[in-house]
Structure prediction request, 119 residues.
Amino acid sequence: VPLVESGGGMVQPGGSLRLSCTASGFASKNYNMNWLRQSPGKAPEWLAWLDVSDTRTYYADSVRGRFTIWRDNAKNTVFLQMNSLKPEDSALYYCARESPRAPFEYDYWGQGTQVTVST
Prediction:
């Protein structure tokens, strides 16, 4: 499995979680990486993008200012720090590798890690 997410769980509103996405079989530092989420009955929602040079990031309006994406190349892992969590952030979170041949398309994605924000 080329991408494995972890770090999900249950947290109260206002809390924080840090998600990890560990790559295997390739070096994630050579690719643009993304975080997305999907709630039951809804389409996947793109959340964050990190470019291959680690100098540019983009975020969805829904998470900008609360979520941060970055990577640790020594661990071959991409992270998503999530702060000020809201109940509407509850979803299955997964990371995806952007295809080098098709920008904004994904060629690998993980199984996801569940995040539940609730009292």
Remarks:
- The chain has a mean pLDDT of 96.
- DSSP finds no helices and eleven strands in the chain.
- The two ends are 34 Å apart (CA to CA).
- The longest strand covers residues 91-98.
